[in-house]
Specification:
Organism: Chitiniphilus eburneus
CATH class of the largest domain: Mainly Alpha
Number of domains: 2
Structural class: alpha+beta
Pfam families: GST_C_2, GST_N_2
Helix content: 40-55%
Largest sheet: 4 strands, mixed
Strand order of the largest sheet: 2-1-3-4
Shape: globular
InterPro entries: Glutathione-S-Trfase_C-like, Glutathione-S-Trfase_C_sf, Glutathione_S-Trfase, Glutathione_S-Trfase_N, Thioredoxin-like_sf
CATH architecture of the largest domain: Up-down Bundle
Strand content: 5-15%
Keywords: Transferase
CATH topology of the largest domain: Glutathione S-transferase Yfyf (Class Pi), Chain A, domain 2
Radius of gyration: 17 Å
Number of strands: 4
Bound molecules: glutathione
Protein name: Glutathione S-transferase
Length: about 200
């Protein structure tokens, strides 16, 4: 059986799915929405979260920060990543860490799931408002970096870009105060025009 990548429409698993398609990897894509209690993801990942990568030997790798480099390393020498020990590899992993910790967990999750951070429902709006302000500053840092570049590192599309595309799409739904990021708006168009992204989105439905 080939490796299987568990994904869900609209989720942060899109980045790993895009990498599979960019590299034409022999990885089966399994649609498995976590909100459906019958989804296989609940027996594959004890946290019930996507993405999860089930290897052909039964090993389960979770976390975007581990899955993205693992997938790239299935195609040694790919331009989507960089050689071990290179500065570029460090920069690509630095961005992946920033997106996972600061943008996703430290930003979007608090905006979308305030109940995980404050018990009292009366305080949820306050958590959401403060989280939106924090996320705005977090996103502004990325926008400044992209003001003079098409892609994050090395002038080419890498696994860090495959992942950032997820959040750039989510940012578009956050409302007017997040519409002012010109570099991110340009970046979103370029990301969504890639054949790998179009194919992944079509497959996820
Ligand atoms: N830190 C994890 C986060 C994974 C995650 O939160 N995935 C979401 C979709 S974007 C999910 O499956 N949520 C279902 C849940 O939390 O119940 C990663 O980067 O892989």
């Amino acid at each position: 059986m080939p490796h299987q990548l568990f994904v869900s429409p609209g989720a942060c698993s899109l980045g790993a799915h895009v990498v599979v398609r960019e590299l034409d990897l022999p990885v089966e894509i399994v649609l498995s929405p976590p909100r459906d209690p019958a989804s296989r993801i609940h027996s594959v990942n004890p946290l019930g979260r996507v993405p999860a990568l089930l290897l052909d030997d039964g090993t389960v790798i979770t976390e975007n920060s581990a899955i993205l480099p693992f997938l790239a390393d299935l195609a040694p020498g790919t331009s989507l990543f960089a050689p071990a020990g290179s500065a570029e590899r460090g920069l690509i992993q630095s961005w992946i860490g920033y997106f996972s910790a600061e943008v996703h967990a430290g930003g979007f999750r608090q905006v979308n799931r305030p109940e995980r951070y404050a018990e009292d429902p009366a305080s949820h709006e306050g958590v959401r408002a403060q989280s939106r302000r924090t996320l705005h500053a977090t996103v502004a840092h990325i926008d400044r970096h992209l003001a003079t570049r098409d892609w994050l590192v090395g002038g080419r599309f890498t696994i860090a870009d495959a992942y950032l595309g997820v959040f750039v799409r989510w940012i578009a739904r956050l409302g007017p105060e997040f519409a002012e990021f010109d570099a991110l708006n340009r970046y979103r168009e370029a990301y969504q025009a890639r054949p790998s992204v179009l194919a992944a989105l079509a497959a996820e439905g």
